[in-house]
Amino acid sequence: MFQVHFFDGKTSKQQTAQLDMDGDELRLTGAFGERRGRLCDLDISEALDSAPRFIRFPDGGMCEIASHDLAEFAAWLARHGRQHGWVAQLQMRWRNAFAALLVCVASVFAAYLWILPAAAEYLAPHIPPAALQALSDQVLEALDGRLLAPSQLPAQRREAIAREFSALLATQSGLPAYRLHFRAAKGIGPNAFALPSGEIVVFDSLVGLAGDTSEVLAVLAHELGHLHYRHGVRHLIQSSVVSFALGMYLGDISSLAAGFSTLLLESRYSRAFEHDADAYAVSLLRHAGRDPVGLASMLAKLQASQGGDSGRSLLASHPDTPSRIDFIEASRR
Amino acid sequence: MQAGSATYYEVLGVPVDATPEEILNAYREYLLESTLSADALETDMLDRVRAAFDVLNNQEARQKYDRELASMSAEGKGGAVAMDALGAGKAARFEFVGDGAAYFRIWIVNLCLSILSLGIYSAWAKVRREQYFHRNTLLDGSGFDYHGQPLAILKGRGLALALVGILSLTEKLGPAPYLAALAMLFLAAPWLIIRALSFRAANTSYRGLRFSFNASYGQMAKLIFVNGLLSLVTFGLWLPRFTRDWRKFVVDHAAFGSTGFACELKVGRVYRIYLLPLSIACFSAFVLGALSVMIGESLLLIPVGIIALGLYFLLPAYIAVSLSNAVWSSSRLGAHRFVSEIPISLYIRMVLGNWLAIVFSLGIFIPWAQVRMARLRTEHLKLMADGQLDAFIAGEQRNVSALGEGASDMFAIDLAI
Fold it and tell me: Do B374 and B354 touch, CB atoms closer than 8 A?
């Protein structure tokens, strides 16, 4: 039998009451009279450590079991055939908490390393081309307004590059659709990028930096690799999931911390993509009977033009240049 | 307070043997009076009238009250037994009895289940978190409780997610549908905020009675749109006033059972709270600007970074704790007043310490941080009770959908008072 506090649900008046069992019914008696109910029908709040527990009766009345009676109350309930729920049991022991922590860490790692990349790879071909086209048009339009200007290269030079690139691809089959765009960039270094819809954008400065057309073609082959593997869409899917998850986890604490960790985690994905695109370019060039050394020399020039910092850091979105060059050199042999 | 010692019969101005019709008429007259002249009746008085009517209008409750009244006068206490006239003013203590280690176990188990269920279980996790913090908060020895249903919350989140989906879909359709959808969301915002506040309040209880939040769309729309516009055109000078109006609104429209909360927060007090951090920010910007002209910018990069980061944490924490103290200390529930005296330096140190510990533990410290914060806030809050806490009366209960709650989770709107 327990001494508990009873509240009738109509006023906040606190009344003392006795709680006991009468047959298979729980009985509460006090100055207010009697409340009873079968143990299995009653709403008994889950055990949450030292928090008071409540028994709610259908008429709105409820009684409160104070902290100091909790252990005895739980044992008493168990004796009458009412055990803790499975989650409540999990929450009680340190052993379970550590297991849960391990499962959390393991599943987050698995999701980050394998599940999310695999899911993005699976989903990418199912995104409607119209959506990708709209997205890419939007991006290119926004860039054209601010960072990019029409190309200053002579038309013949541009045509020559386009012609040689399609000649290089002529022997291959199963290539992704692409369109070449030349742009002059304001305030950013030599670069080239591919948009998910198949737009490959090359900066004038990159063409200028290249010694001959074969180096430009090597870069284009690398960008075609991004298109082949649908890296653009996959990156979009992965980074939105990562930033959403981190926002949920750390958003309450600081958006600064969430934003920084998003950047940190995404860079690993980008480095893997760059490596895949390099490998694709190498095999494409070799297949066409070209020497992939053009890609290596181009990478070296790009690095030199950016001030020589190899960017060997966690945050670098591209793998560090020496290791990429080593990879290309190794694949030539 | 004179009215405090009046019986319910005296409050309504009817004889002890009044018929139900007489009681109803007296109540109607009061209501009519209060609508005709807004200030004729204090809100306080209106609450008493309402409480008196609620009891006397109910056959069973009236009989019980009559018995209490009889026993009171028999004990020689002068026959005065209104809702809060049972004793002299005493401080009822709030206490928080949870602890970080226990909450860590609950948090990690529920986080784990949420991850394994791809987020679906997070609705159950949220309910457990609310229950943990409600039930471990005691006032005068009794715990609060949270009654939100996981399925309702899950449904609310689903609807809110669908809203976001529709919004991003219209973005693809072109600027006109997108703007139309944004305008709709804008117009729905007051309604969503009311839903969220109502859901929270209606699912919180103490001593078996529910809280409630009642406000009309028009009131909320006026509050946020007019104040928002004024804050814009005054370049933020109106913001402290907006803050004050918002806090006051949230308190004023809340009730415990049939007893209303009221907030008398002064505008000047809120402006004073904002004045100090703003002056510090302006002063440091000025000093650093002057220094950078004198000794060059590059040397200052690191100290400026540190100072800016410090202010980024300190100033919002200062404002949050000062406002919290001010709002609670100007609020009352019926005739019971609140007093909140969280020490400002202690609060700021705790915010900073929690933040560092969370960052360096990769988030493992989150449950301890939340418990420490809850304890600090709770244990510096007092209720200066005007008599016993036994005499509150239930209000009418309504079901509140969880859409607003889902939307506030989704858009991370902070609706705390």
Answer: no
ipTM, 2 dp: 0.76
* Count of C-beta atoms within a 10 Å radius of residue A198: 17
Contact A14 B390 (CB under 8 A): yes
Amino acid at B246: W
Contact between A285 and A212 under an 8 Å Cβ cutoff? The reply is no
Q: Which is nearest to B8 in space by CA: B58, B50, B71, B40?
A: B50
DSSP, collapsed to helix, strand or coil, labels residue B283 as: helix
What would the two tokens of residue B64 be? 């019980």
Name every chain A residue with its beta carbon within 8 A of the beta carbon of B206: 12
* Main-chain phi, psi angles of A5, to 5 degrees: -100, 130
- Domain spans of chain A, in order of start: 2-92, 119-332
DSSP helix/strand/coil, A15: strand
Query: In chain A, which among 86-115 make CB contacts under 8 A with chain B?
Result: 87, 90-94, 96-97, 100-101, 103-104, 107-108
CA–CA dist A174, A228 (Å, integer): 9
How many CB atoms sit inside 10 A of residue A160's CB?
13
Rounded-to-integer distance, Cα A179 and Cα A182, Å: 10
Strands in A33-38's sheet, in edge-to-edge order, are A33-38, A25-30, A15-22, A2-7, A62-65, A53-56, A43-44
Any bridge partners for residue B211, and if so which? B256
**Angle at the Cα of B211 from the Cα atoms of B205 and B214, rounded to 5 degrees:** 160
**Shortest alpha-carbon distance between residue A329 and chain B (Å):** 40
Chain B, window 356-375: residues with a beta carbon less than 8 angstroms from a chain A beta carbon: 358-359, 363-364, 366
> What burial class does residue B51 get, using C-beta atoms within 10 Å of its C-beta: 0-12 exposed, 13-18 middle, 19+ buried?
buried
* DSSP type of residue A11: B
CATH number of B2-74: 1.10.287.110
Torsion sign over Cα B40, B45, B47, B51:
negative
Rounded-to-integer distance, Cα A60 and Cα A8, Å: 7
Query: Nearest-CA residue of chain A relative to B369?
Result: A253
Does A101 sit within 8 Å of B108, measured CB to CB?
A: yes
A100 contacts A90 by C-beta, under 8 angstroms:
yes
Which of B57, B135, B144, B372 is the best substitution to test chain A (most A C-beta atoms within 10 A)?
B135
Q: Does B99 touch chain A (CB under 8 A)?
A: yes
Where does chain A have alpha helices with state H? 70-79, 86-92, 94-110, 116-123, 129-146, 155-169, 204-209, 213-228, 231-250, 255-287, 293-305, 321-332
The hierarchical CATH code for the domain A2-92 is 2.30.29.30
**Domains in chain B: boundaries:** 2-74, 89-410
* Residue length of chain B: 417
A302-315: buried (b, 16+ CB within 10 Å) or exposed (e) per residue?
bbeeeeeeeeeeee
Measured CA to CA, the distance from residue B54 to residue B41 in angstroms comes to: 18
Query: CA–CA separation, A24 vs A225, rounded Å?
Result: 72
Residuewise pLDDT in 10s, chain A (333 residues): 888 999 988 889 999 999 988 888 889 998 888 888 888 888 899 998 889 999 998 888 899 998 888 888 998 888 888 888 889 889 989 999 999 999 999 998 998 889 999 999 999 899 888 888 988 888 888 888 788 889 999 999 999 999 999 998 888 888 898 999 999 987 788 888 899 999 999 999 989 888 888 899 999 999 999 999 999 999 988 988 888 888 777 765 566 667 777 777 888 888 889 999 999 999 999 888 888 888 998 888 888 877 544 444 444 556 678 888 888 888 876
What angle in degrees, to the nearest 10, is found between the helix axes of B301-329 and B239-252? 40
Min Cα separation B209/chain A (Å): 6
- Residue A87 to residue B110, Cβ atoms within 8 A: yes
